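Support reply, case 0932

Customer input (verbatim):
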Amino acid sequence: MARRGDAELSGTGPRVQLVSNPSKTARTNGYKCAECGLTVPKWLGRCPECQAWGSIDEVGAARVGLARLAAGPVSSPAKPIAEIDVEAARARPTGVSELDRVLGGGLVPGAVVLLAGEPGVGKSTLLLQVAQSYAAAGKAPALVVTGEESAAQVRLRAERTGALHPALYLAAETDLAAVLAHVDAVAPGLLIVDSVQTMAVTSVDGTVGGVTQVRAVAAALIGLAKERGIATVIVGHVTKDGSIAGPRLLEHLVDVVLHFEGERHSTLRMVRAIKNRYGPADEVGCFELRDDGIAGLADPSGLFLTERAAPVAGTCVTVSVEGRRPLLAEVQSLVAASTLATPRRAVSGLDSARVAMVLAVLERRTDVRLGNRDVFAATVGGMRVTEPAADLALALAVASAAHDVPLPAHVVALGEVGLAGDVRRVGGLGRRLAEAARLGFTTAFVPPGQTEAAAGMRVVEVTDLAASVRRLRMLPV
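Our regenerated output:
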């Protein structure tokens, strides 16, 4: 007979005995937000910390003084780590080289990938081409389950992009039980679910796309992928501020989190790895959106440069590093007399706060006067440059526009500008210079202390912003 104060929990798993402290009374732990983890004493419809709706659930666990867990059966015995077979975890190429670059070689069997992006950016088109390439490899069929479109609509897109293959299966479902039935019938090696917000579990309460349903659907798909070794890609929505919609728990459970982004008025698309258990988490893949689908760009630097017959004042080229890939970017500026009491400052493709700081340093530390002038700064080709390495190029572009002195077409500028007007070093300077030299640039403005120089490139070291502006006037156009 169990002693007084013991509690026994029975179930399908191992037996658990909880020995509670008689002096402690059982009480609940309150309520916890699934988004940010905030604990509150009572249920609320909206989290006061992260402002998320419907994310607070009851913890409901009884507090006990001591818990003892009895040993249960194991799924497989522990082995020395050197004796574990790693072939089952080898990545298999998807057939799309730029996506393989981000994933770290390809898709791992049993891995779950979460791909998020804004509406219309091209997520479904890219994954349809990935499924076709996977099916064409012949190792296993691919299954695409769509909950946002009909099967006929997806069929039309596949015909337009050339993504038809006998081993590529398509199903239009919103019930997760029906999705599992399709998996049993097709036995795919790749499963694509578009999207997780449209799937529902009938046995779970909550609206479709809500926190409870998304959590249940994601948990079921992850369990299915791990149990049967199916590479699974889940499409997710994003919120207005660009973050992944749904509970943050979803990002923690999956193996890879990718963000698909791009400007609506540009053909450039980028896939960034935010989390990757099987490869680098800072890699970027570049794609170009075309009429016949999405094509990978092995060398996208040409999209961000303007070809012109003669140099123009107000432009300067820099080298930005996206992940591990150096990309050339052109920074443009226009300085004009203002008729307003407060001159305008318009920014596109750059960090507005950093642009304001560089303009303030430029006016304080050099002879460039911007107090009564409008300043416009932008990048070319829809590229977004936010790293400090573009500070020097931005400052030279503004100075060039203010003095109406164009920079030579073969010059690049790299460096971070400090508040004292000094030019500081940036990471990966050797890779940046090598990429610039490969594309024909012969002169580089760099911070002091640079010992590595690419073949055929002249390195000009500048200690501060004032020296950079002085050298700008002496350069032959």
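We compared this against your earlier run and they match. Two observations from our side: DSSP finds ten helices and 24 strands in the chain. The first helix runs from residue 97 to 103. Please reopen the case if you see a mismatch on your end.
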